[in-house]
């Protein structure tokens, strides 16, 4: 059975709903990656005495997407047959769609994606711009006819053990690069399910956050385009450097985590909370 990685940063309003959905799945382990939480997210997760829940807790924020890579590395270290990624703020009823993603792994898919825009709707100007760059990268990689604008950046998705072994942690932490590496290694990539963006029921964020997220995704796609073309990797778009939240990504902690997993270092142990005999204990 597969593992589920759930990244969460201050998700006390949604984390129990996410866990209630995920715990119904036929999975062997839930890897919660809690980073920089200052609310009750950790306390709430510890009220569920399920042996399958392994928590990785970082007091400091890891930055956007890095928690996915942290969880993926942990899953890989346990020889997981594959991982399903579900963000900790997705409180919608997406059980059937998550099963679709697991089924895709069973059927030999290496990178299973969700189409979060299955219908053409009136979209805000910023959303259209982001989708254009996502589409441009997929066109560059030859994926557009099968994937459209789908990307690991948006919505639940899953990676096979083969993908976990070939795609670098840094590429998982910059989601569009996952597709670049998938193309490089001729992995089997497909859209396995569809969930309308609004049906994810992620909380609405402030306007500044939306702008920074858009800039992050566009910059990630620009990185993917230059990498796919064997050019110098950059986030620059003409005179503008598309940073967004990218500078907050803690690649230093990701590297330290990877090294500690390989060496059974105490750094890894002090961040793990693993249930044993129905009791929660650290490390």
Automatic annotation (TrEMBL):
Keyword Cell membrane: no
Entry's Gene Ontology molecular function annotations: transferase activity
Keyword match Glycosyltransferase: no
Keywords: Transferase
Signal sequence coordinates: none
Database matches in InterPro entries: Glyco_trans_2-like, Nucleotide-diphossugar_trans
Superkingdom, natural source: Bacteria
A Pfam entry, by short name: Glycos_transf_2
Domain Glycosyltransferase 2-like: 4-158
Record's protein name: Glycosyl transferase
Gene source species: Desulfitobacterium dichloroeliminans (strain LMG P-21439 / DCA1)
Source species taxonomy: Bacteria, Bacillati, Bacillota, Clostridia, Eubacteriales
């Amino acid at each position: 059975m597969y593992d589920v990685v759930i990244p969460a940063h201050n998700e006390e309003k949604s984390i129990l709903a996410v866990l209630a959905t995920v715990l119904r799945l036929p999975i062997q382990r839930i890897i919660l990656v809690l980073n920089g939480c200052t609310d009750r997210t950790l306390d709430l997760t510890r009220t569920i005495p399920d042996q399958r829940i392994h928590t990785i807790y970082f007091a400091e924020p890891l930055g956007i997407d890095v928690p996915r890579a942290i969880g993926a590395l942990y899953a890989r270290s346990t020889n997981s047959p594959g991982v399903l990624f579900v963000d900790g703020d997705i409180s919608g009823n997406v059980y059937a769609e998550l099963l679709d993603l697991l089924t895709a792994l069973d059927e030999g898919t290496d990178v299973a994606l969700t189409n979060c825009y299955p219908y053409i709707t009136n979209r805000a100007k910023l959303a259209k711009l982001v989708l254009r760059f996502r589409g441009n990268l997929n066109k560059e990689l030859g994926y557009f006819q099968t994937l459209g604008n789908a990307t690991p950046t948006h919505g639940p998705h899953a990676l096979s053990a083969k993908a976990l072994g070939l795609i670098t942690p840094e590429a998982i932490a910059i989601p569009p690069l996952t597709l670049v590496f998938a193309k490089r290694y001729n992995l089997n990539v497909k859209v396995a399910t569809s969930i309308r963006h609004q049906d994810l029921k992620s909380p609405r964020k402030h306007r500044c956050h939306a702008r920074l997220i858009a800039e992050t995704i566009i910059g990630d796609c620009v990185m993917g385009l230059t990498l796919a073309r064997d050019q110098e990797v950059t986030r620059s778009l003409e005179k503008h450097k598309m940073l967004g939240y990218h500078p907050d990504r803690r690649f230093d902690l990701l590297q330290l985590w990877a090294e500690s997993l390989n060496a059974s270092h105490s750094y890894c142990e002090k961040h793990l909370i693993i249930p044993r005999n129905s009791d929660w204990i650290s490390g």
